[in-house]
Amino acid sequence: MNSFLRKNSVPLVTFAVFAVLFITAAQGMEKKDFVITLLRGLSVGSVTFLVASGFSLIFGLLDVLNLAHGTLFMIGAYIGWTVYVRPDTFVDLLTPLALILSGFALADVYPLLASRIRLGLSMKRILPWALILVSILLFSFVLPKYPISFWDIGTYGQSPVTYSFMADQGTPLAAPAAVFTEISAPLALIGLLLASIFGALGLSLFNNDSQQQIKLHWKNFVSFSVLLLLALLTFIFNESLTVALAGLSSNWLFVAAVLVAALSGAGLGALIESILIRPLYIRPIYQLMLTLGMSAIGIEVVRAIWGRPEFVMPKPEFFSGTGGVCPATNFADWWANHCSTILLLDGRVRVYNEIFIPIVGVVVLISIWMLLQRTRLGMVIRAGVQDREMVEALGINVRRVFTMVFGLGVGLAALGGILAAPSMGLSNVMGESLFLNALIALAIGGLTNYPGAALGSVLVGLIQQFIIKYGQIGIALPFTDIIFKPTPPLVPASTVLLMVIILLILPNGLLGKKE
């Protein structure tokens, strides 16, 4: 016991200081204000944690500082909005997306094919570029002609802002169905499949090792077959799927949006790692430049597709009840009427923002912790953090593990995006502020420590919300009649100051370990 106290004396003292500060904060405001501020801090901390935990996993195993993580958080929010507000667009996109991804699903087959190609040195240099050029030409020909029911960011009445507003009012706008007119359906499907295969094969030829011993197995074709089947089924039953999704209640549609956003983020992360990050593992500076460039490109893509104006994603019916007995006075009334708010100590608490999001944060924290500590994949990840060469010597496909971890990290960020969309709205800059908060949280808790990411995120959320609250009610300075009210710029400055103080005392963060 004494040795434990000596070893952890500084963190324990730090935690004691935080406890005293929060107790002091509680004395300076009414109970209802304290509870509401506490819950809001936990809500902000939970969203921050989803971004920080993904970043921590990627950096901990891959040593990749993914500066595009905030942008991927934003993209997850916009993808979820599309599924929730425009399910017809989502269904139309399923077929071309599945065909595009199917070519990359044959990643384990291309090295064998590349090793069998017997060409001269000059031809081997030209072939990858030729395949990629053919792929780009096919995509350029087919994609603009492929019919997708879409909005018009140039016309306010058909923009995402209007669709969101009408959906929030309970009267969603109907959009005309898209039909094949400029290109035949078989030609479009075959063209997308060939473009995907040519592009993926061309990229694989850049990293081909002809001396590598490769054996094919039927499992190498499972992902390709599943994606191809998905493309065909969604194409054949496009209209039926659209009607079925549009007929769902907003609760189930929101669940579908959350799942699609998280899975899309994971898939996008896996694609980024396998195509862009993998060749740059030994070039960290290039990684930073690449991910920073991806962040800027991602923001411009979102602006081109969804537009620049901010808009709100409607909450599902389960969290948007009004009138009658609302706000609910207890959880039984809330459950019966699905009130958007509930009274706690005579203070109104938003159920979605301050109760649901923190619960999801706790569930994700426990689930990922169990994955890392209680599963074989988690064992491989933890071993890979310590000694990659040893793990590879045991016959484990470290490359695939890296792809899975990168996908998992981006998936967590995308999950945070769709969960944050109904509470904070959608904007082109929503990822930047969350990513900055996540970096500060990681520095506070420990850069590669998963529980540290949770602790740092909660502290960041609480500090920000308490500063905001005291900006409203003011702080009575001792021995004076002065009431100090923190200004809005002090909200981000307070977290930076907290980070600086902690790093001066604990250079590795609260839960970080010495390298």
Characterization of this structure:
The protein is an all-alpha fold and 515 residues long. The chain has one domain. The chain is built from 21 helices and 4 strands. It has a two-stranded antiparallel sheet with strand order 1-2. α4 crosses α5, α5 runs antiparallel to α10 and α19 crosses α20. The longest helix is centred in the first third of the chain and has 32 residues. The radius of gyration is 25 Å and the shape is globular. About 1% of the residues have low confidence.
> What is the gyration radius calculated from CA atoms?
25 Å
Number of DSSP helical runs: 21
| Strands, total number | 4
Strand-residue fraction?
A: under 5%
- Helix content bin: 55-70%
Output the structural class. mainly alpha
**What's the rounded overall pLDDT mean?**
84
The main sheet orders its strands as: 1-2
Describe how the helices and strands are arranged.
Elements: H1 2-7, H2 9-27, H3 31-62, H4 69-85, H5 87-104, H6 110-116, H7 121-142, H8 160-168, H9 185-206, H10 222-236, H11 238-246, H12 250-277, H13 284-306, H14 331-337, E1 341-344, E2 347-350, H15 351-374, H16 376-386, H17 388-393, H18 398-424, H19 430-445, H20 450-473, E3 475-476, E4 483-484, H21 490-505
Antiparallel strand pairs: 1-2, 3-4
